[in-house]
Amino acid sequence: MFMRTLVRAGVTLLLAASRGVSISLVVSVVEDNHTTTETGHLEIHSKVHNATGIRYVKNSGICETTPNVTQISGYINVGTNMSMWFWFFESRNSPETAPFTLWLNGGPGCSSMIGLFQENGPCLVNADRNSTTLNPYSWNNLSNMIYIDQPIGTGFSYGTDTVNSTEAAAPFVWTAFQVLFESQLFSKYASREFIFATESYGGHYGPSFVTYFDEQNALIASGEIDAVPIVVSALMINNGWYDPLIQDIAYLNFATYAPGYGQLQPDDVLKNISDSLYGPDGCVAQENACYAAGTSTHSNKICRDADNYCDVNVFTPAAGDYDSYDIRQNSSGLFPPEYYVHYLHKEDVMKKIGAQVKYEECPDAPYEKFVKTGDVARTWLPQLSALVNSRMKIFIWAGDADMVCNWLGGHASVLAMDWYGNETLHNTPLTNMTIDGKPVAAVQNVDNFSFARVYGAGHEVPAFQPQAALEIFSQVVRKEQLHSV
Ligand SMILES: *[C@@H]1O[C@H](CO)[C@@H](O)[C@H](O)[C@H]1NC(C)=O
Ligand SMILES: *[C@@H]1O[C@H](CO)[C@@H](O)[C@H](O)[C@H]1NC(C)=O
Ligand SMILES: *[C@@H]1O[C@H](CO)[C@@H](O)[C@H](O)[C@H]1NC(C)=O
Ligand SMILES: *[C@@H]1O[C@H](CO)[C@@H](O)[C@H](O)[C@H]1NC(C)=O
Ligand SMILES: *[C@@H]1O[C@H](CO)[C@@H](O)[C@H](O)[C@H]1NC(C)=O
Ligand SMILES: *[C@@H]1O[C@H](CO)[C@@H](O)[C@H](O)[C@H]1NC(C)=O
Ligand SMILES: *[C@@H]1O[C@H](CO)[C@@H](O)[C@H](O)[C@H]1NC(C)=O
Ligand SMILES: *[C@@H]1O[C@H](CO)[C@@H](O)[C@H](O)[C@H]1NC(C)=O
Ligand SMILES: *[C@@H]1O[C@H](CO)[C@@H](O)[C@H](O)[C@H]1NC(C)=O
Ligand SMILES: *[C@@H]1O[C@H](CO)[C@@H](O)[C@H](O)[C@H]1NC(C)=O
Ligand SMILES: *[C@@H]1O[C@H](CO)[C@@H](O)[C@H](O)[C@H]1NC(C)=O
Ligand SMILES: *[C@@H]1O[C@H](CO)[C@@H](O)[C@H](O)[C@H]1NC(C)=O
User: Fold this and answer.
1) Signal peptide location in the record (predicted)?
2) Which of 29, 98, 289, 414 has its CA 20 to 30 A from that of 125?
């Protein structure tokens, strides 16, 4: 949704040689020292990072009921009074060799339990809000999966939240993986392919966090810090919020003609949206002023004001009465259902999975901190472009019935990227990818970069097109260009 760290001493692990770089990793060896807490969690304290550790329960029996598939849920303390919720599922197939995938939802301030229970997790909650059904298209069919609620205050996470921007969020997520990979519980995954999959505000999180991880890897390589390298081998973002200027313009274009769905708003409304976009002190002028203001403190107000203005005068009328996450539905938003929220509020479920606070899907508090600094109005396209230019595997995709981060804006954003393959991408037509002869997406491939418009899907693509999403995920995992099967 989008509102508006123990391996044996001296063991050297060779990380997957992604992007042609291999980093040798020497981790110190300490046995995990488990203690059991009053709440029944097993607890491990980090020997490396102050005030950090893991508090977890294993094999709760909730959600993933496939025999012998391990799951672990609980909290990573990423600092004093900072409990970051995670839920890990082993791969249903070849868990000893399968990659390690992080799934993050957006917001800012929305829980990744959205993805787990509505999109690509092992189960779906039934209409009785009290039972679950296995999802045959779960992404843990082919990858180990970890879902994290960040920043603190989101979902089941709780404690002190100091995160007021995308940039400020990154170190806590990096620390979370340091603490996980330090423990015997998760150390084996440190050498796996690391896939970073995200959605929506993930258009900010993805480019920012991967860039930060790379910067930390460089500091590790040069000996300036002693930590575990986190080498992301693929980044995938669906219906992302990359560049607000481009995406605000795309609201008008989408409302004027949404490919496959037609004109969404009457001419007089379109005229008003156009005036609000291009008029003096309009949305485009304000967004440009925000970009020009850089990261100075005074930029916060400029960017915040731009976001407010564009939200009220461009996005809101463009969406009108449509469900902005799926224009095929009206504003009542019937699918995907919110049964899972009721399920996560059940005391027995909470106790079994080790959750310690009431679940909130998209609480206001973490969101408001981002809004105050104008983070929503800022662009992460330069960082995304640089990552694409580094030749890493990057996949940008979008369900074509989503309005809020619609595919026209996503596509215009990737076409605006400054990278070596720009011309080639511009000259590559979108062609249909089919599954058993049925078109599921219109795709473009240039080397390790791919774009896809997924047909008949809203914002949460895997919820609407689970089979296509799993097939696409498998092709990204295998580092293939998107192709028909
Ligand atoms: C694609 O990425 C792989 C590493 O995953 C790299 O070896 C290869 O050179 C890249 N391909 C191109 C065309 O850049
Ligand atoms: C494990 O932790 C306990 C309590 O913190 C401590 O007394 C004990 O020495 C630790 N054992 C090891 C092997 O580190
Ligand atoms: C941990 O805290 C101690 C005492 O405050 C400090 O001396 C040390 O540098 C800290 N270590 C790290 C890794 O932050
Ligand atoms: C689960 O693991 C147990 C013990 O290793 C084994 O006996 C059993 O056959 C496995 N069940 C399935 C369904 O793989
Ligand atoms: C919910 O499910 C549990 C078993 O999973 C059952 O014991 C309980 O009666 C159910 N509650 C309701 C209200 O259906
Ligand atoms: C996912 O894995 C499960 C268990 O291995 C299997 O039953 C199911 O058919 C798989 N789903 C797909 C779509 O391959
Ligand atoms: C921990 O965080 C909570 C929630 O923000 C806050 O109410 C509490 O005062 C914090 N406790 C400490 C010791 O900082
Ligand atoms: C976020 O908060 C920190 C600490 O309060 C502050 O130094 C920083 O300037 C804030 N970030 C922005 C973008 O305002
Ligand atoms: C267009 O904007 C004008 C001036 O703000 C307003 O009076 C009019 O009602 C708007 N028309 C529509 C269709 O929203
Ligand atoms: C929204 O859709 C539902 C289900 O199709 C329908 O009952 C309801 O009347 C619709 N509401 C509006 C405002 O169109
Ligand atoms: C990318 O290519 C297009 C079409 O050739 C061109 O208009 C645009 O300026 C290029 N953008 C960059 C950033 O190189
Ligand atoms: C691609 O698939 C779409 C959606 O089914 C269809 O409308 C279009 O005609 C197809 N294009 C080609 C070239 O087959």
Assistant:
1) 1-23
2) 98
The rounded distance, in Å, linking the Cα atoms of 253 and 396 is: 20
Average pLDDT over residues 4-15: 28
Among 46, 49, 50, 182, residue to substitute to test ligand 3 (most atoms within 8 Å of Cβ): 50
Is 426 one of the annotated active-site residues of the chain?
no
CA distance 455 to 316: 24
How crowded is residue 348: how many other Cβ atoms within 10 Å of its Cβ?
Answer: 9
Q: What is the DSSP string of 140-204?
A: GGTSEEEEE--STTSBT-EE-----SHHHHHHHHHHHHHHHHHSTTTGGGGGS-EEEEEETTHHH
Ligand 11, atom nearest to 418 Cα: 13
Q: Give the pLDDT of residue 28.
A: 46
Q: Nearest 5 degrees, angle CA 133-CA 136-CA 139?
A: 110
Tell me the best of 77, 80, 81 to mutate to test the pocket of ligand 7, counting ligand atoms within 8 Å of each CB and taking the most.
81
**402 an active-site residue?**
yes
Tens digit of pLDDT for each residue in 378-433? 999 999 999 999 999 999 999 999 999 999 999 999 999 999 999 999 999 999 99
pLDDT digits (tens, 9 = 90+) for 215-243: 999 999 999 999 999 999 999 999 999 99
Please say if the pLDDT value at position 24 is more than 70.
no
Domains of the chain: 1-234+338-372+380-485 (3.40.50.1820)
